[in-house]
Structure formats: structure tokens, C-alpha cells
Design a protein that fits this description.
Length: 135
């Protein structure tokens, strides 16, 4: 099982922070306030943006985006909202891995706002499918 943070495509005319706010509502059922950019990940020819956000309303786990109803055997897999304890981010295979490592280290700080001091830039390579064997 792989865990990912909420996200998706930026719609025409939308800024990355606006997309993050929309995706949090669609996938988590939460209204969020964006505090700032914490990472940009270059992955598979695209850029992914990660933000520090605070919940300001909504109910966790009530997201109704189309991906939330996908069956487990679909090509994109099945999605559901789960909380992961910060000490389990690495053992639960949160991706991208380099960002999970940064989150884990930051959890030990006195404030998540420390993530905003210097946003991380990551160049991530796609991992082989889980069914692949390593030579």
C-alpha cells in the first residue's frame, strides 16, 4: 500500500495554492487556509507543489472527488483519507519519499512553520511498479 498527499491537476486560470485548497476539499472534505509553499517536486515531466495548510472547516474523510470512489482494482488504485502519525511516515510508504523524510525531520521541530523558511526542491524519479523484481 502506498500513501500520497492530496493533490491533482491545476485547472486553467488557477494558481497552485488555489488548486491545493480545492483538492483538500475534494479529497479530504476539509476547508483549508494555505500558510505557504514547503516543497516543489519535479516528477515525471511535471511539477508538484506541497503547501503547509491549516484546517479551518469541513469534516475529515468526507471528500467527494471522483478518485475517492475508484475501485481497488482500477488502474489508479483506490483512494481514501487516512491520518498517518508523524513517526510512521516512512514505515507507511508515504510518497514522494524525499518529502516524507523532510516531513519526518520537521515533525521533531517546535513548529511546522519551519518548513516555510526554505522550500525544498526535489527531483524525484518514478519508482518501478510494486510487482517488478529488482536485478
Amino acid at each position: 500500500m502506498v500513501h500520497v498527499l492530496p493533490g491533482g491537476q491545476i485547472e486553467p486560470g488557477e494558481e497552485p495554492a488555489q488548486a491545493a485548497t480545492r483538492e483538500a476539499a475534494e479529497e479530504l472534505g476539509l476547508d483549508v487556509s494555505i500558510d505557504g509553499l514547503v516543497a516543489t517536486v519535479h516528477f515525471g515531466g511535471s511539477e508538484q507543489y506541497y503547501f503547509l495548510a491549516r484546517s479551518v472547516g469541513g469534516t475529515f474523510g468526507t471528500g467527494g472527488g471522483p478518485e475517492m470512489g475508484s475501485p481497488a482494482d482500477s488502474e489508479s488504485g483506490s483512494y481514501r483519507a487516512v491520518w498517518l502519525a508523524t513517526d510512521s511516515l516512512l514505515s507507511n510508504d508515504l510518497r514522494p519519499r524525499s518529502f516524507a523524510q523532510r516531513l519526518r525531520r520537521s515533525a521533531e521541530l517546535t513548529s511546522w512553520r519551519a518548513l516555510l523558511i526554505e522550500p525544498l526542491v526535489i527531483h524525484e524519479q518514478p519508482l518501478p511498479p510494486a510487482s517488478s523484481t529488482m536485478p
